[in-house]
Amino acid sequence: MPIVNRIAAFHDEMRAWRQDLHANPEIAFQENRTSQVVADKLAGFGIAVHRGLAKTGVVGTLKAGNSPRAIGLRADMDALPMPEANEFGYRSLNPGRMHACGHDGHTTMLLGAAKYLAETKNFDGTIHFIFQPAEENEAGGRVMVEEGLFDKFPVEAVYGLHNWPQLDLGKFSVRPGPMMASADNFEILVRGMGTHGAMPHRGVDPVTCACQIVAALQTIVSRETNPLDAAVISVTQIHAGDAYNVIPNECVLRGTTRAFEPKVRDSLEPAMRRVAAGIAAAMGCEATLDYRRKYPPLVNDAVHVDVAAAAMAEVVGAENVTTDGAATMGAEDFAYMLEARPGAYVFMGNGQSASLHNPRYDFNDDALPVGASYWARLVERVLARAA
Fold first, then answer.
1. Which terminus of the chain, N or C, has fewer Cβ atoms within 10 Å?
2. pLDDT category of residue 113 using cuts at 50, 70 and 90
3. Which residues of 151-182 are buried (b: 16+ CB within 10 A; e: fewer)?
4. Res. 1: pLDDT tops 60
5. Cα 311 to Cα 102: distance, rounded to the nearest angstrom
6. Quick one: average pLDDT of 172-186?
7. For the chain, how are helix, strand and coil distributed in percent, rounded to 5?
8. pLDDT > 60? residue 244
């Protein structure tokens, strides 16, 4: 594949950066060492550095030529609060912290592109290299936008990338429109009346009621949602009681909902509230729903998808780029940036067997020059110098 020669030349350097970041993972809004590493490297490349957005965020700005045009390239920096099961030499040094989603690779690839572009300046305009904290569950992307990311660093478009173990190394996938789903969380508190487990008739069992609610929630997707649309309601936690022989007063259900279309997303909360309250009333209980909106759907702009696809094809060949790839019910807070500015988010093949968020996951270092080359060619294409 036609990797940029200069980027290939410092592949070993990028590998060392990535493995250092992997060994020192930091979770949401605690990426202090990571952001310092990023800032130091950007400054060493001769790139102007701004720090402090979303606590630990870093933005590097590089200008060349006279064009007023500007674009943003974003990489996430945070790790996950989970233990690592790998045993190689650069495994996590921080107990209960792990780069299990490849953000160490994302950060490294954008740094590699920054190094190359600072050396060559083969573009006309401004690049803002956005290193974002707290992608995992804490919406660092939203915080950066709310704190004025695009006011301080105006761009006409913003681009993101995520490694994808389900794709072979050297392949890319993207699609216009919804690429990833919304992600909302919920908690349903079911109240009954506790009693001795041997005398259920003397109380009102919230556990039995909660089980009925779990089953009925699935009919919202199967019977109330258009089969041509997509939605997910997953109950992922059930908590009740502390003793074998006591029916408790309360049972708590928690979980997540997903949807691609705003109208579908908006329909889930009232339907869940109706189902939970109705079943609880029928069984002599009370049920209250606490519904928390988190990440919106990630929606790619068709024009920028075409631009990104052309840059990917330049690196790996058009035959290795899918422009109608499958959307996923996973969620991404880059969605907030795409709500504020048009752009495109792409999946890059990682060629690994362990899935994302798996304790044995590791970013494939052979992918580093591929991703860095994509970023470089994207900039050189969007901000092309006049002939």
1. C
2. very high
3. eebebbbbbbbbbbbebebbbbbbbbebbbbb
4. no
5. 22
6. 97
7. 40, 25, 35
8. yes
pTM strictly above 0.85? yes
- For range 277-302, the mean pLDDT: 97
* Distance in angstroms (rounded) separating the CA atoms of residues 96 and 82: 5
Give the separation between CA 36 and CA 30, rounded to whole angstroms: 11
Q: What is the structure's pLDDT at 386?
A: 83
pLDDT attached to residue 303: 98
In whole angstroms, give the CA distance from residue 337 to residue 146.
10
Segment 344-371, tens digit of pLDDT: 999 999 987 799 999 999 999 999 999 9
Number of C-beta neighbours around residue 37 at 10 A: 20
Rounded CA-CA distance 319/170 in Å is 10
Give me 120's structure tokens.
Answer: 């060559």
- Token pair for residue 13? 């350097």
Question: Per DSSP, which regions of the chain are E strands?
Answer: 48-51, 58-64, 70-76, 125-132, 157-164, 172-173, 177-180, 183-191, 195-196, 231-239, 246-247, 250-259, 286-295, 298-300, 321-322, 343-349
To which residue do tokens 């495994």 refer?
91
Q: Which one-letter DSSP state was computed for residue 224?
A: I
Task: Find out whether 134 and 294 touch, Cβ atoms under 8 Å.
Answer: no
- Sequence-ordered list of residues with C-beta below 8 angstroms from that of 235, at least 6 positions apart, any chain: 214, 217, 253, 254, 255
Considering only CA atoms, which of 160, 167, 101 is closest in space to residue 322? 167
In terms of Cα–Cα distance, which of 246, 265, 245, 248 is closest to 257?
Answer: 265
- What confidence category does residue 7 fall into, taking pLDDT thresholds of 50, 70 and 90? very high
